[in-house]
Amino acid sequence: MRAVRFVVLMGLLWGQDASELGERLFNQRCATCHKLQQKLIGPPLARIGERRSEEWFARFVSNSQALIQSGDTQAVAVFRAYNQQIMPPFPDLTDEDIRALWTYLNSIAAPQPVAESAPSEAKAVLYPGELRPMKVEDFAFLRRAYWLLAAVAVLVALLLAVVIHFVSVKRASEEQA
Ligand code: HEC
After folding, report:
1. Best substitution site from 24, 30, 55 to test ligand 1's pocket, by max atoms within 8 Å of Cβ?
2. How far is the C-alpha of 4 from the C-alpha of 59, rounded, in Å?
3. How many Cα neighbours within 13 Å face the side chain of 49?
4. pLDDT of residue 40
5. How many A from CA of 22 to the centre of ligand 1?
């Protein structure tokens, strides 16, 4: 039991260490070009494991250009998407360093997609005569106005028919007289 606990504890400590090493390496070696949550010169790297494998990550970080030139589709695509800027190789990073970076980056919350145009408070205020998008209430009003007009038209037609009827009856009786 004690041995198990020891192993688990060491594992946790190692994980902690790896994450700390990863954070330090990221800040020293990557942060000039990468943010966690947003684009900088390169893509945001939080949760990189959701789109790349660990092996791919290791190869890209140690020498991105070698991977791109080998024709790897993902590497070529990201290279093109970032205007073919060259990420420098990091031949001095050990496997352990790269694993620590991977652990650290995947422990960060995923980047939030930036809302294209958040509806601003200012736009909610409308001044008389200002155009605004149609709302449900507007449609309800238009529908009501339409039925009202239709009803008026029917009434007018009926009234006309009655008037015409009486006028023609009157004229007929006058002609007889
Ligand atoms: C001088 C700027 C620069 C530095 C420093 C840099 N990168 Fe990059 N990185 C880029 C650019 C630019 C790209 C986009 C791909 C390309 O143009 O090659 C990129 C792409 C990546 C990608 C691919 C992301 C994806 O979505 O596929 C990973 C992973 C990555 N970098 C990790 C790192 C790590 C880890 C470090 C630090 C050890 C680092 N980078 C340091 C510029 C940099």
Report:
1. 30
2. 34
3. 14
4. 94
5. 15
> For residue 51, what pLDDT is reported?
94
| Ligand 1 probe mutation, 24, 32, 33, most atoms within 8 A of CB | 33
Are the beta carbons of 105 and 47 closer than 8 angstroms?
A: yes
What pLDDT, on the 0 to 100 scale, is given for residue 140? 84
Residue with the smallest CA separation from ligand 1 atom 29 is 57
Other C-beta atoms closer than 10 Å to the C-beta of 19 total 18
**Cβ < 6 Å from ligand 1: which residues?**
29-30, 32-34, 41-43, 45, 48, 52, 57, 60-61, 64, 78-79, 82, 85, 87-88, 90, 101
* Dist CA 81 CA 88 (whole Å): 17
> How far is 167 from 15, CA to CA, in rounded Å?
101
The CB density around residue 75, as the number of other CB atoms within 10 Å, is 20
What pLDDT was estimated at residue 15? 56
With a cut of 50, which residues of the chain have pLDDT below it?
A: 120-122
Task: State how far the Cα of 84 lies from the Cα of 79, in Å rounded to an integer.
Answer: 5
